[in-house]
Design a protein that fits this description.
The protein is of the alpha+beta class and 426 residues long. It contains 7 helices and 25 strands. The strands form 4 sheets. The chain has a 7-stranded mixed β-sheet. Strands 4-5-10-6-9-8 form a 6-stranded mixed β-barrel. It comes from Lactarius akahatsu.
Amino acid sequence: MSFAPHHPRFIFLFFIFIGSINALPFIATVNLSGGARAIIARDRARAQKFFAGVQPHGPNAHKLAKFRSRVTHHRGRQVTSSLGDTIHVTDTGVTYTASVGVGSPATEYTLLIDTGSSNTWVGAASDKKYVPTETSRDTEMRVSVSYGSGSFSGTEYTDRVTLSPSLVVESQSIGVADTAQGFSGVDGILGIGPVDLTEGTVDGSELVPTITDNLFQQGTISTESIGIFYQPSTIASSLFSDGELTFGGIDESKITGDVNYVPITGTSPANKYWGIDQSITYGSNGPSILASTAGIVDTGTTLVLIATDAFQKYQEATGATLDQTTSLLTLTNSQFDNLQSLFFNIGGVQYELTPNAQIWPRILNTEIGGTQDKIYLIVSDLGNPSGQGLDFINGFTFLQRFYSVYDVSNSRVGLATTHSTNAETN
């Protein structure tokens, strides 16, 4: 997982008012120490965890169905909002984070937004420990999750979680870490993946309701879904602009076309996550990079990862060379002038990743250990050959160009274009 690394090189602060929680600092951080090599290592380690599966026996379909019935048929459920509610989230250069309140009065934690896991927990930072309040309850159950590039273990509590004044969850399962490895720059994780990823993570529990599950069950949102809006990391967005999470709907103002949905893939292990089927071609009439196959959409992965044989085809098509300093593919200026778009065919709809969208933000080149005037590509090697049931990960750099929707109720993923899809500001 591409977690925000150690000491930030520069931090810009500005304040927004978010109602009764307090006027909290909204931090846009470019925080990339460790460089591109560290980003690639974390992404690949995370991918290997996805390949290994959630638990030794994997999610159990009948357990999941039983849990869904319990959640969606909660007696007396009253919907207090028929529209989605939006919170602002922060671009850290490699992913986005959210400011989340836990307890009453709330302590604010900076949590990494992760669609590839489903437990919410705090305590990763030694100077930001969990603060029990009158809404806290210690279940005395052990909780632990491995992310491939990191892990935590600790005790489960239930507590009030405040995402915004209108998005408050009562009795949410919260992991309180005794130990955490592989995290810095964040206090923990906001897990918004499928609920079956929680199986076996808490002693004595089959599945643990996620934040989204409980918002729906408690009547706060009318649809169990999350809309995510990210933006390219340019000079402007690195300093001031932000992303959004919309629980229970989508933000129509952020999209430029319809949201097109596809069902969760039936292929394992991609179907354990927000998995979809797609193919990739280079150029409108160019060669196939990746035949129709299964993979996942994931906010916790920074780069666009594709199977090794597909990566080799991409490198050949672009003429890129592997940069020994960053381990990213690099292009000359003339090669970039000839670079073609990548077309992702998802459910019969073409999503165009333009040449500008395929390169690392130039303003951040030196932050990843690169050279200021070089051109680095954001497509990298997954580390496994195709045909393994998870042949790509559309990560953070892909999601910066498209609006994405994670529809729990209908087991589907949606994508739409935004004003940033064809942006040429890079």
